[in-house]
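Sorry to interrupt, but I need a hand with the structure work. Go ahead and set the record down below:
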Amino acid sequence: MKIAERLKYARTKKEVTQVEVQQSTSIHAKTLSGYENGVSEPDLETIKKLAKFYNVTVDWLLDDNDSNYPGKEPFYIDLNEYEPVNSEAIILINGEPLTKKELDYILVGVSTIRSMG
């Protein structure tokens, strides 16, 4: 699958129109149409923006080897926005779901590590 096909697949899987993508990403619907029809290709910054919007990886959008994700495209979970009760995804450690308190500790730890550079 080429990037044009993956972009269209990701959009239809998310059940949004090109106009809705435009409203969320500021990428004009006509430009999106060009990407999805293989008329033009997005630059790296646009690919990153679309990957985030569609909850897929940049690698998945760019990789034309379908065997990398057989039957299931990857998705992102932003831990800052993750709510264990309201989420379709459940994050486990040793088979047990994370509690909100545990998640808060993880976020503080990661923020600390990142601030150290």
